[in-house]
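Changelog-adjacent note: as of this version, every example in the card shows the full chain rather than a window. The one below runs 1001 residues end to end.
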Amino acid sequence: MFRNATVLLILASFLCFLYGIKNLFLEVEENACRMTYMFGVPQFSKVNIKDNSEFPHYGLFYYYEGRILQDVNRMKLKGAPVIFVPGNAGSYKQVRSLASVALRKGMDNDRGIHMDYFTVNFEEQLSALYGGYLENQKLFLRIAILAVRTLYKEANNVDKSIILVGHSMGGKVAQAVIQDPAIAKYINTIIFISSPIDKPVVNFDPKINEFYSNTDGYFHNKRTTHLPNRQTNVCLNYQDKIPHQGNESKILDNILMISMGGGNRDLLVRDGLTTSQYNDIHAMTSSIPKVWLSCDHLSAVWCLQLVLVINRFIFGISVIDENKNVFFSPDKYYRTQTAINYFVKPLNKPKSNEVYFPKLNSGSSWQEDSKIAFRKVFKNGLRADYNHLLPTAKYKELKKIYIEIDSYEDFENDWVFGCTAHRTEASGLYCQKGTSLSHFVQTIPSHDNYRYMVLLDIHRMLKYYPDWTHILVRLKPTNKPTSLKIDAYSVEDRKYKIKAPKFSLPKLKTLVNETVMGTIHTGVLIEGLDEPFPTVQFDIEPVECGDDEFGVTAKICIPWARGFNRHIHLTHDTKVKTIYVNVPFSTPSGYNTTQNPVTLDLFLNPSCRYKISYQFSIAGTFSKIVQEFYHWLPAHLTAVLFLVLRNQIVSFQNSEDALFVKPYAGFFQSKSLYIVTGCRLLKKLLLNLKFLPISPDTSNYSFYVSIIIHGTAIVLSIVSVFSIWTILTFHGNILHKIALKLTRLSTASSEILMKVVTTLPLSFGVLFISISVGTCSGIGLTLATIFYFLVISNAYKDYLENWAWDKAKGIFKRIRQKIRSTSKNKGTVALSQREIIAVDGNPGQELIPNNENGDTNELDDSNEVANEEKCSYFEGLENFAFHITMLMLLGIMSALNFGLSVAWIKAKYQGHIHEHLPDPFIIPTIITLTCLSVLLQLGAPRKSSGYHYVAIILYLCVCGCILFCQEIVYRLSYLITFVYVCVALQEVCYNFYTLILDRRR
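Full-length structure tokens:
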């Protein structure tokens, strides 16, 4: 019963993973980015770089537009330099959206400020898959920066700082280049667009890990880190200084670093990877003012809304001198405030001076109203000033007052004030002067416009300004329809606190059965959301809306995650009327989500009444598990194969009857689930051991995440092995021909190669080790995997033929025996007489009947045939099960080298074969292929002693996969190599032991 439960658990885990994949696009809205169009023909002028013999295939280009060709090397540049750094598989031409908008903005502005955009050509290299590119790109970017500075020195004899804009892995390269102090002093600002800054998306090879580790180690000593702690709550005040590690300023602190994440549309670089402990500003595109939308990984570089904001910031920190030379401001504080203004929220500083209003005879109207909920719509706009007075004495008991205007042209100017009102007999109540409260104004997105709102705490305001009698909302004349909405309430009546439902079946709970008509703002405090995958689903249903359309704007704020605010807008046209709430990364150690909960602010249509419900979202949770932890699958799949290999070796050594040997032996197991449980306990012990050369993964998530990933890996291993056996059994010849085409071997060459390998299996290792050394380890491993499959396919084909022939012979002989037994029964009487005579003549002689051919050993032959059948079945089929597992392990190792293989092939076909491409896996590859050829030479596996030690080592390797390889995936190659060594060493040792015993005999 317990075994059946584990089987159901494994199957359920796999189904959960598939369900997560199905709902991966659950929160992804339609792409609302507007396309950026060029104003002229995009052109790129190549910059001449001296002493660039090391990277001749890279290039630096200057962007301009028009049909007239320009040579940047002869131009007199006076703009401020910006260098665009493309990312993984990115083109240098991706700069055209940013550069084209900047070019047009430079022509239109009155200040004479313009930008010079440069871009780097990395030939669309896959730098996220192969880390060997990263160091080369960093070195060339250094050369490019110096080349750009040379252009300005020759033209103007001035010293200019540079802004770097990095997309994807280009952002990491831009960050790494300032490790050189000679370059860092020239960099003014770095803008990261959808870049995995502190941690790679998947850690595929040691070069990626080394690149990130070196950068982190250098920045840790040279730049102040910003880390959230137990008291951090950025929802209360974004500009609160997050405590630093270290008190004194570091040498890299003057460089402003701004990072941006694409949001839920970016499925390549998840949200939590786009921030950094070294950044000054972080923002998600869905929360950047005037962007308010999510960008996928590629559209982030051409999305017009985002491109405009980036260029506004760059122009905002630019200054111009008397010679028309444009510079970037060296003042870090000024640049930071400008970045907050454009990427976080508009900064309207409190104004101490009072504003005097026009006289009463100017035509303006004044109106006082003390209603709790108030809405006034001006469908035809306003011909004169409209002044609405809200008496503070009436709202004092309610504490909070929410004021909103929309579709208003003059929102950037002051429109809300605090004042002391006076009453005259002629004109009534009015304010002669007032103090602006515009620094409290916030902007929230709407369906087709913006909503500008201010939330005032009356108690706090009167504490500082006890003389104020009214809040004044002053609207200026406009031709466009506009509206004014007011909602006064008590905090206790509008704040709902809930506990985030844990992993459970969906059960809808009603939070608000029906909101009061006129309600605009309400908030939900969500406790217990402390991991990046549990998702709470909120359903906002309109009960009644009158003549207005349904509309809700939601703002989600994560108190410990700076810059991860998210805005969601629902309308009657929206396909999904649901809001999903989750967090980008886990809380800091010891963080209390009860004191600092996740907040969900809902901005409603006051003419509607709503029902608000919530539940645990299974679809949202599983989709987040897939997105956050899919890169754990290689480690868990390798762990499963190690345990399968262990089970196959043990069952092979202990089985006496071939009937117990199955092709899928070892794959149907549940022991690895116990190992996953044990590894969680073991990790706590290992984290306290300081002498370990490498530390285990520090991530600590709920147990069911590991179970889902591991259960999925078990099912994938079973599906893979059955697919391979099915292919071998029914389509072996077809795949054999396909493999020959892939390797470009003729049938004759293949047969010769097969015979050579069959006669001398050590040639297998010699051949593919030579290929690995001559090309790269990825190519050698891929070809070795293909040829290993060919060997198995060819051997299994021969085995099936021999097995079928032996079975046919056995059936034919049994038929003959039945025929003979029938004829012998007929001649029993005659035979008995001969036996009597023979016995009388030789009383002590034993009579043995002869067959027709005089063969007296037919029974022995039949026994020998049966034994041969068993031996053939046992050795062939069990060997194939063993080699299929070894083939799958070799395939995983080849897959980990995919980036290196693509890099080598690309370099060869582009004529850059002289380019230095580091091969971090060449030594493990040589060792693995050597061990594989030894196993083929010895005909492994064989019945031998010492397999118990190998079984124990495989158990330890299973733990190693789960503890050390979930996040740092490339370590699997070393573990697979170690397993190959252990298995081969055990076979070699037993072989020597057998030879010694034979000599002694």
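Structural remarks: The radius of gyration is 38 Å.
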